[in-house]
Structure to design on (534 residues):
């Protein structure tokens, strides 16, 4: 009888634990158990600064016209980029074309991440003074609302926690913009998928890595995939809002 | 043993068996928190990582003064020396080079657990074995190799691999140096068919702060064709007793990045402050 009881207890406790383990284990969506804010598996809030160790010459200085190395552009994209005219962009009030959702996380900047409400994560950049809103569905059972309304530089972003420790963001409804400041284009039909992952920095501190996949059949021969690193800052003392610049 | 005794044993067994099965399920649940990383992974080469275009391109590398002097003294002719031929392929190269990954695992035949993962050698880079069986890193006096010695653990569904015992060589093929004290912490994040590896490289000898690089790979249904064996030093007729080098302050290529791409010299030679956004504002404001 003792053996039976022990076995029964083990079985019951197994069933009690299994759904949680399975739900977390496969890296699937998991917004259940309260609001997105309450159920956040990681805390992304705070000030983050770009740590530009990669693509330095494409990010920290404006590359020269025709320098498109490592972007899988279509022939049509190359024609568009070859016609890049930053003065014309400024004259047409398009100076933020290189600060859209498909490129903003590559812009050297500080980012301030806060919860706007229980289901909206707000990401602001000081460089370009852009604001992104990551919309979580109200509960795991309610679908994400379809993006509607005017297209914007930052588009509409649907967010979902990926257990155990990641955030997935899918962005559409964009205004056409630039992947790089020298006119490498993406169209308004581009779709951006991003994954936000954190890591500890040896010796203290935190790293945020954002993997971005830009899908745009019009201007990209294959999805454009880049990953960017950010270091956590203790406060906003270096926050320096600067408007977009086309040059 | 009488039939009653056998029956009692069988009865106990049939009760215990489901419990054991449940425990196994629990263990499987825990195991499923890990991600499958074995197989072929095609490189997504959409970032310019290797920096092997121009000789003095240390952009994005936070060198300290010693590292900078060593980097500026580098001459590619060093590769003609037997003892330096393979210095361009440290383990970091798997996230910096243009190649894909072939990852296999070795499992314990009795327990079924993973003993190690191996990232196969590719075009001069040696194979990297990630030991998952809890073995310690060797003594600090043990041999340092091109691949180094790597152990791994799972943090949730992220594989974290820590490499020590790396032979001194190049952090970048352009001559940014790495010492035999350098270490690498590589984190493997898998999201569907995309795997991004974040490498955090520390070097108390040549780096002012950690150097971070990341690279994405896409799961490939077809095997990635490795294109050559790891670098093997061979005598090529050079008997130089002094390593070919430049005087750091007289490196003839120091301004090539400026001339060709408009990159300021401070950035080309890897000053740490050039890795932050305020540096961009500073050069934008310059006349």
């Amino acid at each position: 009888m003792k053996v039976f009881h022990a076995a029964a207890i083990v079985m019951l406790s197994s069933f009690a634990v299994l759904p949680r383990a399975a739900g977390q284990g496969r890296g699937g969506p998991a917004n259940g158990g309260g609001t997105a804010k309450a159920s956040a598996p990681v805390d992304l809030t705070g000030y983050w600064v770009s740590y530009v160790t990669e693509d330095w010459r494409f990010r920290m200085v404006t590359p020269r016209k025709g320098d498109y190395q490592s972007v899988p552009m279509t022939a049509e994209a190359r024609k568009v980029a070859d016609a890049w005219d930053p003065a014309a962009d400024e004259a047409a009030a398009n100076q933020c074309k290189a600060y859209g959702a498909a490129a903003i996380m590559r812009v050297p900047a500080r980012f301030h991440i806060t919860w706007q409400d229980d289901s909206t994560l707000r990401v602001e950049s000081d460089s370009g003074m852009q604001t992104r809103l990551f919309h979580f569905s109200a509960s795991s059972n309610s679908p994400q609302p379809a993006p509607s309304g005017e297209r914007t530089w930052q588009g509409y972003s649907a967010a979902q926690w990926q257990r155990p420790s990641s955030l997935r963001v899918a962005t559409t409804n964009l205004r056409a913009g630039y992947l790089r400041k020298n006119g490498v284009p993406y169209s308004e039909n581009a779709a951006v998928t991003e994954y936000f992952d954190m890591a500890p920095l040896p010796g203290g501190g935190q790293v945020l890595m954002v993997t971005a996949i830009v899908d745009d059949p019009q201007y990209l021969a294959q999805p454009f995939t880049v990953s960017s690193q950010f270091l956590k800052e203790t406060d906003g003392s270096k926050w320096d809002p600067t408007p977009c610049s086309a040059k | 043993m009488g039939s009653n005794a056998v029956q009692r044993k069988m009865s106990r067994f049939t009760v215990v068996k489901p419990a054991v099965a449940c425990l196994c399920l629990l263990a499987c649940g825990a195991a499923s928190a890990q991600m499958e990383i074995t197989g072929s992974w095609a490189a997504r080469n959409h970032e310019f990582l290797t920096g092997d275009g121009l000789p003095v391109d240390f952009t994005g590398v936070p060198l300290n003064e010693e590292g900078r002097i060593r980097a500026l003294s580098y001459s590619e002719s060093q590769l003609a020396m037997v003892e330096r031929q393979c210095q361009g392929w440290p383990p970091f190269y798997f996230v910096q080079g243009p190649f894909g990954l072939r990852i296999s695992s070795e499992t314990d035949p009795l327990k079924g657990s993973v003993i190690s993962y191996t990232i196969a050698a590719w075009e001069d880079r040696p194979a990297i074995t990630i030991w998952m069986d809890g073995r310690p890193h060797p003594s600090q006096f043990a041999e340092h190799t091109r691949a180094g010695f790597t152990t791994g653990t799972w943090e949730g569904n992220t594989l974290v691999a820590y490499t020590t015992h790396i032979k001194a060589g190049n952090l970048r093929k352009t001559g940014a140096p790495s010492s035999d004290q350098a270490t690498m912490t590589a984190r493997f994040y898998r999201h569907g068919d995309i795997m991004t590896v974040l490498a955090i490289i520390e070097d108390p000898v040549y780096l002012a702060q950690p150097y971070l690089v990341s690279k994405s790979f896409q799961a490939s249904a077809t095997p990635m064709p490795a294109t050559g064996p790891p670098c093997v030093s061979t005598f090529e007729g050079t008997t130089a007793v002094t390593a070919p080098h430049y005087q750091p302050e007289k490196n003839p290529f120091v301004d090539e990045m400026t001339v060709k791409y408009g990159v300021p010299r401070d950035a080309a030679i890897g000053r740490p402050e050039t890795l932050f956004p305020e540096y961009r504002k500073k050069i934008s404001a310059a006349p």
In short: Helices of chain A lie at 2-25, 56-59, 75-82, 86-91. DSSP finds four helices and eleven strands in chain A. The first strand of chain A starts at residue 46 and ends at 50.
